[in-house]
Design a protein that fits this description.
Blueprint: E1 2-6, H1 18-32, E2 36-42, E3 53-54, E4 59-63, E5 66-76, E6 83-88, H2 90-93, H3 110-128, E7 134-138, H4 139-151, E8 162-167, E9 175-176, E10 197-198, E11 201-203, H5 204-211, E12 214-217, H6 220-225, H7 236-241, E13 246-248, H8 278-289, E14 299-306, H9 312-316, H10 323-329, E15 333-340, H11 342-354, E16 358-361, H12 366-375, E17 378-381, H13 391-397, E18 401-405, H14 408-413, E19 427-429, H15 434-450, H16 452-463, H17 469-487
Parallel strand pairs: 1-2, 1-7, 2-6, 7-8, 8-12, 12-13, 14-15, 14-17, 15-16, 17-18, 18-19
Antiparallel strand pairs: 3-5, 4-5, 5-6, 9-11, 10-11
The chain binds adenosine-5'-diphosphate and alpha-D-glucopyranose.
Residues 17-19, 22, 168-169, 218, 251, 386-390, 409 line the site of alpha-D-glucopyranose.
Keywords: Glycogen biosynthesis, Glycosyltransferase, Transferase
Organism: Candidatus Gallitreponema excrementavium
Domain Starch synthase catalytic: 2-240
Length: 489
C-alpha cells in the first residue's frame, strides 16, 4: 500500500511529545511490513536545512485566495526507506517556536500554517506523480488532509484515496474564528457538512472526526472514554455518532531507543537477568540530580510536560499538591524532569531548593530522561487523562514500577498490585486527587520497604512485556483496509 502521513512532528527532526515518536515508529514498521510510506512535515526553523536535500523547483500551493510559493526538502527516517518531505515557507515556519512562543503560546496564524501543510501534501503528490492509497492524518494540524479529498476538487488520481484520522489528544482541537475558514480552501457551503462549525467558530479536529473515513486514537480505553462527556472535550457526541468507525490502537514503543540492555545514555546496561545492575544507574541518577546517594531509600521519577493533563496540579499545586507532603512524611526521593506551565516550573524550582529529597530539572533533556527511567524505583504518572502515554511503558521495560491513574493508555498497560498474591505490574489509583496520589505512593513505598519479593517479581513481569510496534502495525493495516472499503464502497 502507498501511505502518506501528514503530521506536525516527526522524530528525530522535531519533537515536543509522544506524537513525533509515534509517527516515526509507525512509519518504520509499515515500511518493514512492505508498504511505501512518505511523510509531510513543515520545515520548521529548528530543522537545519543543510542536512536536507532540496528538491528541484519551487512548489506553488493553492491556498484559499492565494498561491503560496514553497520550497520542498527531503530526508529519510534513519534505518528505513521512509521519505520525509519538508515544506519550507519562511513566512509560516521561519520562526523559533513550533506551535507558539513564550509570549504567544498558540500562534495566531496556526490555521494558515497548518492549512498550508495539508494543501502542500496534495501538491507534493502531484509533483512526485505519486498518489497514495491512504492518507493518514494526525491531530488537528493534519486534519485538513483527511477532509480536503471529500470537499474540494482534487486530481482524479486521488479518487480512490481513503483517509484515516488519528487523534493523539482530544485536548487540542484547533478552534479559531471563522474568518480563518477561507485558508482551508473549502467552500462555505460545506462549513457545516464537513464538520467545521463549533459554536460559531471553526474546529479543525471536529471536521477531521466528521470527515475522515476512519477515526482512530492511541489506546482502546481512550477510544471508549472520549465517547463520554467527561473525556470527550465536547466531541463525545460526534464520536458516538461515528462509533462504528472509531478504533483504539495502543502505541508501541521503539525498542531500539528504549531498551535497558543497550541504552546508550545509561552507565550500566541491564536486563531482567542482571537487574541488580540497575543500582548503578540509581547512583548515577542521584549524583546527576544532586540527591543524597543511597540505596536505602526508594527513588521516584517523573518526566513530563508540565501541563494540567499530566496531573501536575495534584502533584505540585501550591498548598494542596501532595508531593511536598510525601517528601516530608515518607522516606523517599524524587527526581523530576519537565517543562511547561510557568507556575509549575516556578513551584518545582522552589521545592527543589527547599526539600533535600526532591530535585527538579526544568528543561528538555533526552539523556537525563533515559537515566531517570533506568535509575528510579518507581515512576509516577497520575495523568488526569492519557490517550496512550509512553513513559509508563518505558518504565515497565526498565524495571521501574509505574504508579498511574486508571485512565486511557495507562489503564491498558499497567496492572494493579495485589498485595495478597503479589500479582500486578504497578500501582493504580482509581480516582485522581492529591490524597489518592499520596495514598497510592504510600502503598508503593510501603511495599518497597516491606515486600521486596513482590517488588522484584513485579519488575520482572514488567520487563518481559511486549509493546512492539509490529502488533500496532498489523492493526493499522487492518484500519487502512477498512478505510479503503468504506471509501470505495
Ligand atoms: P505526551 O506526548 O502527552 O507528552 P507521552 O508519554 O506520549 O506524552 O510522550 C512524552 C515523551 O516525551 C516521552 O518520550 C518523554 O520521555 C518525553 N519527554 C517529556 N518531557 C521531557 C523532558 N523534559 N525531557 C526529555 N524528554 C521528555
Ligand atoms: C499525545 C498523548 C499521549 C500519547 C501521544 C502519542 O501526546 O498525550 O498520551 O502517547 O500523543 O500518541
Amino acid at each position: 500500500m502507498k501511505i502518506l502521513m501528514v503530521a506536525s512532528e516527526v522524530a528525530p527532526f522535531v519533537r515536543t511529545g509522544g506524537l513525533a515518536d509515534v509517527v516515526t515508529a509507525l512509519s518504520k514498521v509499515l515500511d518493514k511490513q512492505g508498504h511505501e510510506v512518505k511523510i509531510v512535515l513543515p520545515r520548521y526553523y529548528v530543522i537545519n536545512r543543510e542536512q536536507l536535500e532540496l528538491l528541484e523547483g519551487p512548489m506553488g500551493v493553492p491556498l484559499g485566495f492565494q498561491e503560496v510559493w514553497t520550497a520542498v526538502y527531503k530526508s529519510r527516517i534513519p534505518e528505513s526507506n521512509v521519505s520525509v518531505y519538508f515544506i519550507d515557507h519562511e513566512q509560516s515556519y521561519g520562526r523559533e517556536g513550533i506551535y507558539g512562543s513564550s509570549t504567544e503560546p498558540d500562534y495566531a496564524d496556526n490555521p494558515l500554517r497548518y492549512s498550508l501543510l495539508c494543501h502542500s501534501a496534495f501538491q507534493l503528490c502531484r509533483k512526485l506523480d505519486w498518489f497514495p492509497d491512504v492518507i493518514h492524518a494526525h491531530d488537528w494540524q493534519g486534519a485538513l488532509a483527511a477532509i480536503l479529498p471529500k470537499y474540494t476538487r482534487q486530481d482524479s488520481k486521488f479518487n480512490k484515496t481513503a483517509t484515516v484520522f488519528t487523534v493523539h489528544n482530544m485536548g487540542y482541537q484547533g478552534v479559531y474564528g471563522k474568518h480563518c475558514f477561507p485558508h482551508t480552501g473549502i467552500s462555505w457551503e460545506y462549513f457545516y457538512a464537513a464538520g467545521f462549525e463549533d459554536w460559531d467558530r471553526m474546529n479543525f479536529l471536529k471536521a477531521g472526526l466528521v470527515s475522515a473515513d476512519v477515526v482512530t486514537t492511541v489506546s482502546p480505553t481512550y477510544a471508549k472514554e472520549i465517547q463520554t462527556p467527561e473525556y470527550g472535550f465536547r466531541m463525545d457526541g460526534v464520536l458516538r455518532f461515528r462509533s462504528d468507525t472509531v478504533r483504539g490502537i495502543l502505541n508501541g514503543i521503539d525498542k531500539d531507543s528504549w531498551n535497558p540492555a543497550k541504552d546508550k545514555f545509561i552507565p550500566a546496561k541491564y536486563s531482567v537477568k542482571t537487574l541488580e545492575k540497575k543500582a548503578e544507574n540509581k547512583k548515577a541518577l542521584q549524583e546527576a540530580m544532586g540527591l543524597p546517594v543511597t540505596d536505602k531509600v526508594p527513588l521516584i521519577g517523573i518526566i513530563s510536560r508540565l501541563t494540567d493533563q499530566k496531573g501536575v496540579a495534584e502533584l505540585f499545586g501550591p498548598s494542596y499538591g501532595c508531593v511536598p507532603r510525601i517528601c516530608n512524611d515518607m522516606k523517599v526521593q524524587f527526581a523530576v524532569l519537565g517543562q511547561g506551565e510557568r507556575w509549575c516550573e516556578n513551584e518545582l524550582r522552589v521545592l527543589s531548593s527547599n526539600l533535600p529529597n526532591l530535585k527538579a530539572s526544568i528543561k528538555y533533556d533526552e539523556k537525563l530522561s533515559h537515566l531517570i527511567e533506568a535509575g528510579s524505583d518507581f515512576y509516577l504518572m497520575p495523568s488526569r487523562y492519557e490517550p496512550c502515554g509512553l513513559n509508563q511503558m518505558y518504565s515497565l521495560l526498565y524495571g521501574t514500577l509505574p504508579i498511574v491513574h486508571k485512565t486511557g493508555g495507562l489503564n491498558d498497560t499497567v496492572e494493579n498490585y495485589n498485595e495478597e498474591t503479589g500479582e500486578g505490574t504497578g500501582f493504580v489509583l482509581d480516582m485522581l486527587s492529591p490524597q489518592s496520589v499520596y495514598d497510592t505512593v504510600g502503598w508503593a513505598v510501603f511495599a518497597w520497604y516491606n515486600k521486596k519479593d513482590h517488588i522484584r517479581k513485579m519488575q520482572e513481569r514488567g520487563m518481559k512485556k511486549d509493546f512492539s510496534w509490529e502488533r500496532a502495525g498489523k492493526e493499522y493495516e487492518k484500519v487502512y483496509e477498512q478505510a479503503l472499503k468504506i471509501h470505495n464502497k
